[in-house]
Amino acid sequence: MIIEGQAAIVTGGASGLGEATARELARLGAKVAVLDVNLEMAQSVAKDIGGIACQCDITNTDSVVAALAKATAAHGPARILMNIAGIGSAKRIVQKDGSPAPLEDFARVVNVNLIGSYNVSRFFAAECAKLAPMADGERGVMMFTASVAAFDGQVGQQAYSASKGGLVGMTLPMARDLAQHAIRVCTVAPGLFSTPLMRQLPEAVQQSLAASIPFPPRLGKPEEFAQLACHIVTNNHLNGEVIRLDGALRMAPR
């Protein structure tokens, strides 16, 4: 798919990997809707790239429907969906006081990362399937954002790893399901990236994490994630695939 001129939706587009992807799509000529729970930050990014900001809680169906409707009214039907919104968590199953980990925390992470991503995708796919095929026969493409934690989850990452593993497991069956509608589905599993959340850690910790990456021995750049996300859009034979983007990193148990 040629990105130029296409309407694109980026969840979690107000910061980090989502912001970088929104900016790269806009640079390549897409009409970008920046969806995020933080409307002020989404508006700032949208203003910079000539896009539109839509406040959206991906776990809330009414919020998703309203955000997608706003994006469609501004840019027309979207053919590109980048599912990047997500949250993290780290809790031991048995807490220091001997109590079990709170179920609410596990459910919250799975609800946002897995169910929320599916929630946006089902509405996008239903509308995209109604569009006329393009010259190459394709109607649309969507990407999920997993993590290397889906494969190498560390101590305390049960909820996060389960949510990201769910996205990995959903990729192929969703690609097979949507093949009849000519909509491609891929997932990127990033490793350690220099995001706002990562930059909140002490510098020494960031350097230690970077040193654990075989090559290049540094944190990933959000722009590198964005470049891969956009390549998935432009490479029509990429479908049903999960791509690790991690510098050959394999996470240690802790």
Task: Please describe what this structure looks like.
The protein is an alpha/beta fold and 254 residues long. Helix content is 44%, strand content 15%. It has helices at 16-27, 39-49, 61-75, 103-128, 149-152, 158-178, 203-211, 222-234, and strands at 7-11, 31-36, 52-55, 80-83, 140-145, 183-190, 242-245. Helix 2 links the parallel strand 2 (31-36) and strand 3. Helix 4 runs parallel beside helix 6 (158-178). The mean pLDDT is 96. This is SDR family NAD(P)-dependent oxidoreductase. One of its GO terms (molecular function) is oxidoreductase activity. Keywords: Oxidoreductase. Pfam families: adh_short.
Write the layout of secondary structure elements.
Layout (H helix, E strand, L loop, with lengths): L6 E5 L4 H12 L3 E6 L2 H11 L2 E4 L5 H15 L4 E4 L19 H26 L11 E6 L3 H4 L5 H21 L4 E8 L12 H9 L10 H13 L7 E4 L9
Parallel strand pairs: 1-2, 1-4, 2-3, 4-5, 5-6, 6-7
Helix pairs in contact: 1-2, 1-8, 3-4, 4-6
GO molecular function: oxidoreductase activity
Keywords: Oxidoreductase
Pfam families: adh_short
